[in-house]
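note to self — DONT lose this again. spent like an hour looking for the file last time. sequence + predicted structure for the chain T wanted, 176 res
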Amino acid sequence: MKVISYNLRKHRAATELRELVERHGADLLCLQEADTTDIPDDIGGLVLADSTQRNRLGLAVYYRENTYRAVDVRAIALKKSLHDRVLKPAEERMLGVRLHDIDTGSDIVVASFHAAPLTALNSLRRHQIRTALAELDSVGEGLPKLMVGDYNYPVFKERLGQHVRDQGYELNLSDS
């Protein structure tokens, strides 16, 4: 499974998506900071599972339709930062999708996640991450889960990794 997670930087990078999906042969595309009123129903052979509706800058998940079938979708609001209360960029900070693999008959939960911005405390972001991981069970209890996105965690990454491991998950960071 090839997954691309992309923060569109206030939707400015939206024009890059089709070429990016096609060049890398992505099976899943998870977006953050998307103008969900201005995203297509399909991108490079991937179809839109769903997007958040209550965000100024939202989340979206796309999947390869000849490989997966969307079974359930949930947008989840998380504890708000001061930035969220004042500027209202994001009500829903996680979008979880339960996908059924057509070939194997198994299910997986994939989520696009966007933590509070750098103006918030790391403790708030850790709370959001912990809550988001727990909420993913409501989309598919006991299923494998992949939560990708913008964790907004530039420093103290080892502490973030330990926090995620304490929840029973692994953390992988990428700069590409």
